TrEMBL record:
Record PANTHER family: HCA OPERON TRANSCRIPTIONAL ACTIVATOR HCAR, TRANSCRIPTIONAL DUAL REGULATOR HCAR-RELATED
Organism: Actinomadura alba
Family named by the database record: Belongs to the LysR transcriptional regulatory family.
UniProt keyword annotations, A-Z: DNA-binding, Transcription, Transcription regulation
InterPro entries: LysR_HTH_N, WH-like_DNA-bd_sf, WH_DNA-bd_sf
Pfam families linked: HTH_1
Protein name as annotated: LysR family transcriptional regulator
Domain HTH lysR-type, chain residue ranges per copy: 1-60
Keyword Transcription appears in the UniProt entry: yes
Length: 321
């Protein structure tokens, strides 16, 4: 029997999520197209693989027996493709977004290693990057590994590599708008704005833990349409504020200020890659070595007690970073 790998990959995605919509999103296909793939696979095998009901989908006994072999088929196919490719292909790294620290880290790596070919992507979510890693579409990704929407994939490894220090962005008309430095305790009762429509779970989780720790109200309404939109929103709302990177550029004529906080929030960036690859990218060790050595030499993982703040759930990662 000849099995269509696209159908098998679709089956595994549904089996792992037990939801056609979420599985279709991870495969970048429509739910209807994914449903047809599963139907054709079931026709080829001659048995149904799922129990479909009003409240969702579940694996039946046949599907449960088929699942481990389906995973092995996909892993073997991905390994075959990687082995067949030339070692000269670029190292594919997801850096989350164009304003965050990972892009600067990879840009520096490229400057210091001009012979290293790197292909950068920006999925703006570790969840999306983790799915791409498991499919073999990328070789490594940066992101915060806690507060994800789905359980941590067993095939992936991570290492904390960088603490990006945050400041507070707030309107010039805010009661603290003229402060040189703001004690974070002064923000108690203030409204921390972080729109839920454009914020992935791991970032929203960081903001929620920050707001709860310092007694702030978390406002998840509205949209984040980019830096200019954030400036417009903050400039027109005298009681709003939001966490921003310490190097976030605020134009001189903006009605918004960026103020340092004490203690200073530290957003933890981890590097994530596949565990146990039979044919890992030959230059992945160079990326890992770069972040490890440079981070150690330049104190990328220094979290100063009383002067810096991280969510408690992230602190154990410092030991392994």
């Amino acid at each position: 029997m000849d099995l269509d790998l696209a159908q098998v990959r679709g089956f595994v995605a549904v089996a792992e999520r037990l939801h056609f919509g979420r599985a279709a999103a991870t495969l970048f296909v429509s739910q209807q197209a994914l449903s047809k793939r599963i139907q054709r696979l079931e026709q080829a095998i001659g048995e149904p693989l799922f129990v479909r009901g009003k409240h969702g989908v579940e694996l039946n006994a046949v599907g449960a027996r088929f699942l481990p072999y389906a995973r092995e088929l996909i892993a073997a196919a991905d390994a075959a493709v990687v082995a067949a490719r030339s070692d000269s292909r670029p190292l594919r790294v997801d850096v989350w977004g164009h304003l965050q620290a990972p892009l600067r880290l990879v840009s520096r790596l490229i400057r210091e290693c001009p012979d290293l070919l790197v292909d950068v992507s920006m999925r703006r979510s570790l969840g999306a990057a983790a799915d791409a890693l498991q499919r073999g579409e990328i070789d490594a990704a940066f992101g915060r590994v806690h507060d994800l929407a789905d359980p941590w994939p067993t095939r992936l490894r991570s290492r904390l590599v960088y603490l990006e220090r945050d400041a507070i962005g707030l309107p010039a008309a805010h009661r603290l708008g003229n402060a040189a430095v703001i004690q974070t305790s002064e923000l108690r009762g203030e409204r921390l704005w972080m729109p839920g429509t454009a914020t992935p779970p791991e970032v929203m989780g960081f903001c929620r833990r920050f707001a709860e720790h310092f007694g702030m109200e978390l406002d998840t309404g509205g949209h984040n349409l980019g830096p200019d939109h954030v400036l417009d929103v903050l400039g027109s709302d005298p009681i709003a504020c939001t966490l921003v990177g310490s190097d976030w550029h605020v134009p001189a004529d903006a009605a918004v200020r960026k103020v340092q906080l004490r203690p200073q929030p530290c957003f933890p960036w981890s590097l994530v890659w596949r565990d146990g690859d039979r044919h890992p990218h030959p230059h992945l060790p160079r990326l890992l070595g770069f972040v490890e050595k440079t981070g150690r030499d330049e104190d990328w993982l220094v979290c100063r007690p009383g002067r810096d703040w991280m969510p408690e759930i992230d602190l154990p990662d410092l030991v392994h970073g």
